[in-house]
Amino acid sequence: MFVEGFVAYLSMRSFVISAMMGKDPLSDIERKGPGQPRQRDNVIHPAGAEMSGSSSRWRRESGLFRRWFPWLMPTFVAINVALFFITMYINNCPKNSFSCVAPFLGRFSFQPFRENPLLGPSASTLEKMGALEVNTVVHKHQAWRLITCIWLHAGVFHVLANMLSLLFIGIRLEQEFGFVRIGLLYVISGFGGSLLSALFIQSSISVGASGALFGLLGGMLSELVTNWTIYENKFAALLTLLFIIVINLVVGILPHVDNFAHIGGFASGFLLGFVFLIRPQFAWVSQRSGVPSYPTSSLSHRYMKYQYILWILALILLIVGFTVGLVMLFQGVNVNDRCPWCHYLSCVPTSSWSCKTDAMYCVSSQNENQLNLTCQGNGRSHSYPSSYASDSQIKSLCSQLYVNGEIGSGYFHRMSPKRVDVSLWLVYHQEFSIPSRTYRQETFR
């Protein structure tokens, strides 16, 4: 059911991207320009498409409403793609698995399709590269994973969908607001998505840029709200934007999609939009640009009162939310215990799929030159003729035992192990958990 769920997710993403290619969600919005009176006070906004001489002078002098050259979002795309190639190079599937997909790619070949249907690396490689894994964040104090996970992806399909979305959403915003504000909006929203995901999903590792992407959508929505009075045709744009947001959030209730990262990223971006994307009102702008027809009695401050109020409230909510979330995370709080119904926000079980995400556990023991593994998730057991195996190799074996059942006895010979002696670790029959992102445990963004 994972493959069907992902296909539905990718198809819906493609639909949204196609809609954006044909029409920007905010393309219906135009700033009030010369000859476009504002109904309430019969004045004009000087930043329209056809700029008057005084408005052009104002644009040059103030730098507001300028069009920025978008270089940061394409750079982010290049970084994500480069990191995916690096991850696949480190993964080196032929060394750790006997049935890689596209073996002609050498060490860039993909994990077995039943282990990772996204055409990507193993869970252990993603964890090594900086994926979000709650136990590691809390007990090993690796909080940096809350940021690094947004630059990693689980497979070709995953990175393709996210990067196309980033190009079509991010470039438009960077042109409007510049690389500093949109860059901060992207990264902080991604952090917010990771934080909420870590509070609710603690049995799987998580990677992906969707939390940051939802932050951009949230920022677009709050920018429209806080700058409401300076735009024309805003209701059509608002409905289009809300439709895109709702569709993406609804798709997030499919199994193995980290919808908490989506929700956390969207909420963070929505609040950040009130802080970063606020624009001066046209009364103040017209005063600065020296529009002679502008009535003196209606001149105002740079921002309206409601903009100041939204700015203050959003900043307070951001600080309080991040602080409380981090405290709860490092205290080991599982929010599901306090909100028993919240898991439905990420996955709604139906007759077609299940939302169970039980963690995989393997009990391992060593007898002379034989390694014995028992998968606690399905009760399967198998013995492997080897006394040496690395930690990543054992985790990979456990993962494949969970998915495929018994693995051929020649597995270790094909792996060319690094010959790390783990017999002391195995002799006590220690139990290790693999919060895997493979097959049934997949939670991507």
Automatic annotation (TrEMBL):
Keyword presence, tRNA processing: no
SUPFAM superfamilies: Rhomboid-like
EC number: 3.4.21.105
Localization terms from the record: Membrane
Region (Disordered): 27-55
Membrane-spanning ranges: 68-90, 150-171, 183-201, 207-228, 235-254, 260-278, 308-330
Keywords: Hydrolase, Membrane, Protease, Serine protease, Transmembrane, Transmembrane helix
Protein name stated in the entry: RHOMBOID-like protein
Composition skew (Basic and acidic residues), residue ranges: 27-43
Catalytic activity annotation: Cleaves type-1 transmembrane domains using a catalytic dyad composed of serine and histidine that are contributed by different transmembrane domains
Keyword Transmembrane attributed: yes
Upper classification of the organism: Eukaryota, Viridiplantae, Streptophyta, Embryophyta, Tracheophyta
Family to which this protein belongs: Belongs to the peptidase S54 family.
Role noted for this protein: Serine protease involved in intramembrane proteolysis.
GO cellular component annotations of the record: cytoplasm; endomembrane system; membrane
GO biological process: one example: proteolysis
Organism: Protea cynaroides
